[in-house]
Amino acid sequence: MNIVHCNGSCKNYKAKSGLDGGRYEQGQKRCPECEVFVEWEGLFCPCCGRLLRTKPRARKLKRKLALSRTR
Ligand SMILES: [Zn+2]
Ligand SMILES: [Zn+2]
After folding, report:
1. Full-prediction pTM beyond 0.90?
2. Which residues surround the ion ligand 1 when the cut-off is CB under 5 Å?
């Protein structure tokens, strides 16, 4: 599996800031690699190819479970 890195192109898709909460609800997705919200219809970051988060961060208790299931 290729190691993916931010190459800077995510700034072209970067979601506008200044919106009141509910970023995910507005269709914005967060890339864990680029650490930005992007407006992108695909599931994967157009910049680094990482799977984008489409939901608010899970609660701490669930996080462990989610991590082990991700693989
Ligand atoms: Zn990027
Ligand atoms: Zn990315």
Report:
1. no
2. 6, 10, 34, 47
- How far is residue 71's CA from residue 54's CA, in Å, rounded to a whole number? 18
Q: Cα dihedral sign for 64, 67, 68, 69?
A: positive
Give residue 47 CA to ligand 2 midpoint distance, Å.
Answer: 5
* pLDDT tens per residue across span 12-68: 999 987 657 688 888 899 999 999 999 999 999 999 999 999 887 666 655 565 566
4 part of a folded domain: no
Instruction: Judge whether 32 lies within some domain.
Output: yes
Count the domains in the chain: 1
